[in-house]
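Running this now, will post back.
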Amino acid sequence: MASYSYKREESARLEPGDYRVSIVSVEEKVSRSGKNMVVLGVRPNGTNLTINHYIVEGDYWNRNLTQLFDSFNIPEGEMNLMTWPGAVGAARIKIDDQGYLKVAYFIRKKKAEELPPWVGAMPERQTVNASGFADVTDDEKLPWEE
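Update: finished.
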């Protein structure tokens, strides 16, 4: 029989409350009901937990995006989702009926100023640089076409 080494280790627990968070992922998807939605992965400061937050097109679409833009300092109406990762904001985290962590809502900048400062390296907003595409013309052959 093999000799195994075991040392007790528990998962980090996060209590419900207000936290500084960063966006770690953004994806466009379609909900079960067929509506367009944006799925955000947000990470509370000081943890390695990622909480998925769903903004679904419908009655609260504009209100929820306004909350997001205000909290994360994303220019209003900026729907270039590739630039959202790395943005830092704040959120009220709660536990849902099934016991999972969930973003209740995003907190405005003014209210977020009352939270403890960011701990550790500050995430950098992702940028998209399209200038490299300007040099390519339609007439150029791709390397594997030669």
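The chain has a mean pLDDT of 89. More later if anyone needs it.
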